[in-house]
Amino acid sequence: MTLLTKIDNNIENNISGYSKYYIYIIVFTYVLYISVFIGVVSLNYKYLRYFSNFVQFIIAVFLIIRFHPFKKNLTLKEGDSRVIYSSGLFLLINLGATEFVIWFYNDILQKLKIIN
Q1: pTM of the complete model beyond 0.70
Q2: Most confident option among 12-16, 41-45, 56-60
Q3: From CA 53, how far away is CA 37, in angstroms rounded?
Q4: Would the pLDDT of 100 be above 60?
Q5: Where are the beta strands (DSSP E) in the chain?
Q6: At a CB cut-off of 8 Å and minimum separation 6, what does 86 contact?
Q7: Domain housing 91
């Protein structure tokens, strides 16, 4: 067994354990977005893009490590299809929601400047 195979197996075993928590992280992020949008949580909307980019980076790294094409035997486990689907759906919603919230807050600020 080569060193790279051992490293890959070690990473695979560690990442597989986090797959069940992955869905909870995505749901938490949805709740956070909704809370920011309706005003329950006060967050400067300018930081929303940084948060969005950070979340997208974490998801991309997770998917690259978990499903990289250099594996000799790539077999999907029980929760893998759910992780792949929820990641794709989250990235799509994250892109749209972030841009909408930034547009929404910019629009409100422009209207407030006109009033003043």
Answers
A1: no
A2: 56-60
A3: 17
A4: yes
A5: none
A6: 22, 23, 26
A7: 3-72+79-115
